[in-house]
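Quick one, T. Sequence first:
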Amino acid sequence: MKNSVVLVSQVFSPDPTSTSILFSPLLYKYALDNEEDVEVFCGYPVTGAFRDLKRNEEVSKVKVRRFGLKVEAKKNLLWRAASYAGFLIHVFYGLMKLKKETKVVCVTNPPFLFWFVAIASRLKGFKFAHIVLDMHPEGWIALGKLSRRNLLARLWIFMNAFAYRSATLVCVLGRDMMPLLRENYGIDERKFRYIPHWRATVSSD
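Structure tokens:
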């Protein structure tokens, strides 16, 4: 019986956003190089490119399962909220169907995604790794757009703490993220994995 790996990200090929551009080729290569069942739980592209896309298809050995609504999320805040809500509710339903042995990886698109993955993980028993691409609400707090004392910020941090405790691994792109996450959420040092954002793939010798 093959192992099963699921990437959970609202954006995935052919979405033009940076997260999609980064993770889509990585997942395709992983699927081709490994004898595992590889799936992605994603949404529809943020632009009108979604019109001809199937909800379920297989691309380069990756089973692509699309969740949520077919809306142009960048049109305005209302459409973005509808896109987030539709995806999160629908993908949670998909996560609840996973087997305990499934290995799950999630990213910060959208920012609240790993809350839903964490809740499903607690209920279903599967393990998950969280790749931290952006730090919310820390970014907004640092910019002065949100006060740490604000009820929304406190609730956000509370839910983040729950999700970080639930994760098996917390992968970060910058070393400076680790002390901040330790300070804010008390994450066990052994959970961290540092992934350099820029790294030479060909020797200069």
